[in-house]
Each structure stands twice: as C-alpha cells, then as structure tokens.
Amino acid sequence: MKYLDEFRSGELAQGLAREIEATAPAGREFALMEVCGGHTHAIYKHGIDELLPERIEFVHGPGCPVCVIPIGRIDDAIALARTPNVLFTTFGDMMRVPGSKGSLLDARSQGADVRMVYSPLDALELARRNPEREVVFFAIGFETTAPSTAVTLLRAQAEGIRNFFVFCNHVTIGPPLKAILDAPDLRLDGLIAPGHVSTVTGTSPYRFICADYGRPVVVAAFEPLDILQAVLMLVRQIADGRAEVENEYTRVVREHGNERALAAIEQTMELRSSFEWRGLGSIADSGLRLREEFAPWDAERRFEVPGKSVPDHKACQCGQVLRGVVKPWECKVFGTACTPEHPIGTCMVSAEGACAAYYNYGRLRRRGSVPA
Amino acid sequence: MCLGIPAQLVEIVDPEAKIAKAEIGGVRRDVSFALLEGEPRIGEWVLVHVGFALDRIDEEQARETLELFEAMGQAYEEELKTVRASTVDGQAPESGAES
Predict the structure, then answer these.
(1) pLDDT top residue among B61 and A58
(2) ipTM > 0.95 (yes/no)
(3) In chain A, what are the domains?
C-alpha cells in the first residue's frame, strides 16, 4: 500500500477495496486475468494487489505485444537487419529482446543499421530521406497499433515510396484469449480487458468469453481507481451470477470501436492462417499479414527470412507466465540469471512484462510469505 | 507500449496528409490524425499512440491521465524518451539512441 499512499485518491481506493471485500462471495478464491501489460504495470506500481482481499488474485495475460513475439520472429528481424543496404527500424522495446543468437542491439553493435523509432511514420520518413536504402519497419502490436502501420502503408502507396517495407507481426487479442480459456491448466473467474486496444476494437471481440465460456469481462482504463472499479464490477457480476461484457472506460471506448482504424487494417492486412505466439504455440487466425495489393511493401516477400520456429530458452518460463499458469517468482531464473539488465525472456525485457513489473516493484515471492 | 499518451493539438501541418503538430509531455512533434473521426481542432486533446491520434479526450481527463503517467515513472518515461529520440519533422532519429 506504500504506493497508494502517495496516490492522491488513496481514500477513494480504500473505499473501493472495502466494497470489493464486501461484495466478493466469501469462502472461495477468484482468479481475475488482467489481459494487458499496461494494467500489470499499474497494479504493481500502485500496490493494488496488496489492497485487495487475499482471496482475489491477479493472473497476468498475453497482452504485452513485446512479450508474445516468439524467438523465431526475432531471429527473422535480426536477419533482415543484417541484410546489406537495409536500414532496420523498430520500437525501442524490441531492441533488447533476445533471439536465439543475441538481440537487435547486439546486431547493431556488430554493424547492422538498426534505428529506434517512435512511430511507423518515422520509419517512412527515413525511407523518404534515404532513397538509396531499403527501410524495413518491425511492426508489432495488437489492434491498437496495427492501424498506425496500416495508415503508414497507405501513405507509402499514395506517395509511391518503394523503398519502405513492413515486417508484419501484428496480432489480434481474441484468439490468444480463447486459447487460454481452452487450456486445462488454468481456471479464470473473470477478465479485465485492455482499455486502449478496445478504443480501436470496441467491446465486441470479448463477447465470446461471456457467451461461450460464461466468464464476465470488464473493459478498463489504466488508472488505479479504474482497475479497482473493474475488479468491483467483475465481483458484482460473479456475485449476481452474470457473465456480460461491461465497459468501465466509457469515456473513450465505444461498443463499435474506431471504425476508421478498423477499415485501415481491413484495407491493408488479412489474417494469416496461423501465427506462432511465445508460450502459446501456433494459434489459428491470430496474426495479420499484408494483403496481396501491398506485396511490394512486404518485407517477407521482398527479402529472404529464415522463418524458423525456435524453442524458448530452456530455463525461461515466459511461456507459462504469459498463460498465467506460473507466477514470475516461480521461474528458476527470475531475479537471478534473468533481470531487466540481463533479460533471458521477453517478460523481463518490456517494462510492461509481468516479470519486469514483479521485479521492479519488489514482488519477489508469494504474498504473506516470510522473506528468504 | 500499448499506452496512449494525452496530447494537445497545436497546429494543423498538412491537411492532405492528415498531419498535425501536437504537444506531448512538453515535446512538440508531428502526429497523424488519419484515424480521428471528424475534423481536428486546434487546442483539443487526443490520445496518441505511436504517433497517431486514436481518439478525443476531454481536458480534465487528459490532465489526470498525464499526472498518473508521471507517477507511473518508468513506462511513461521510456515512452517519452522515444518520443524525443525520434521525430518525423526534425532531424532524423539518432542512430545512437539507446532503447
């Protein structure tokens, strides 16, 4: 609670926590999955987990776009970055993610031209300014980020920029959630869905969770009070025996999402028959690739990429962490061989990864257990 | 990286390419308003994700969210660092920028 004391709405938060305690049916435990890494980060930063009754447990979901990229795709990115004349661009988060032989940062120190960008538009600008180079953008992210790549592709097409290529790793949020709900090793009682992704998709992608799995879903923003409010809405649904998609983030998220953004994705990208996820394996209809019309801008068609599936590091349990079946502190290398400075797995690289959140905010062991 | 950062639109730069200048955490940079419904107005607050305005938000909410992000530290700082390290209108992104 030390963090919440610093938060100016501490009293409101305590009030919500008391209401959650009073509402959640007694005598049983609840596992609530926060799907998004932004939520994971906020929960541990503000000590929301310590504010809740012990029978409510947060389980971390697959909604960290950096964490879910498998090693094989990192290797492909590094191979692209090492291709002669390629200027490789990436979001900063991906720089330190280890592939099977080092990271993009390592590739850069060995001479590859790898640049960090904030936006795909920056990568396109680099292509405009460097017409003699072939600029590749490492596109990652869920439905929040895919429209930005889509609009950038449409700009490249409109301006006839032919030295800009997208290495497309965009993914969709519904299929991995279905894979997790189908897994026999995890029981979830409710899900907190990501606010910012849902500004694009709306609330409809989560309906199957209620209809097919009988689990309640609440779409929530990222502030501590929003997360507590979402937990309260979930335990109310559970107490009432309801399973609905509710929207805590009504100030931005609408039922139908951002139609322009969805149209831009639809115009430029199509579903791959399957896409490999770290820890979840190949999932049907879960990844996006460029449509035939955009083949001239598709890095996977323009260049040779190894395209191999590579198993995770033996000691790393990111896969189980991403599926919510293992807590970060249960992983053998957590905090010892694997730290934010020297990460082995993706969940420790990204600030939004569950392992990084646990490590940075001192959740090094089970709650209530005696320090070792 | 899935966070949207509140930003205030300060200038329409290119109506055809749908580029506006926005102020994000004290940094001015170009953002696209191609995904924003309706015409953008100077002074309005938007949620910016990887250089794109995704939606409008009201000013009070924008300020609350910014305060929270500042309190959140690392994740926000890293996001802001990347905003500063990379521009579409100024100099080319620094090749030496650390992640």
Answers:
(1) A58
(2) no
(3) 71-172+259-302 (3.40.50.11740)
Q: How far is A365 from chain B (nearest CA, A)?
A: 22
- pLDDT band at residue A364 using 50, 70 and 90 as cut-offs: confident
CA distance B8 to chain A (A): 16
* CB nearest to A91's CB, from B1, B34, B65: B1
* Predicted structure pTM score: 0.89
Query: How many domains, chain B?
Result: 1
pLDDT single digits (tens) A27-41: 999 999 999 888 998
Containing domain of residue B57, as a range?
A: 5-85
The verdict on a CB contact (< 8 Å) between A199 and B57 is: no
Determine, yes or no, domain membership for B73.
yes
CA distance A26 to chain B (A): 33
Residue-wise pLDDT for A314-325, tens only, equals 888 988 888 888
**In a domain? residue B57:** yes
> If you measure CA to CA, which chain A residue comes closest to B46?
A252
Stretch B62-87: mean pLDDT? 69
Model confidence at A187: pLDDT above 90: no
Chain segment A280-307, per-residue pLDDT in tens:
889 999 999 999 999 999 999 999 999 9
CATH number (domain holding residue B56): 2.30.30.140
**Residue B92 domain flag:** no
Does a structural domain hold residue B68? yes
pLDDT digits (tens, 9 = 90+) for A79-118: 999 999 999 999 988 998 989 999 999 999 999 999 999 9
HSE, CB side, 13 Å, CA atoms: give it for residue A123: 36
B71, A122: Cβ pair inside 8 Å?
A: no
Query: Which residues 2-31 of A have a C-beta within 8 angstroms of B?
Result: 6-7
Average of per-residue pLDDT across B74-87: 66
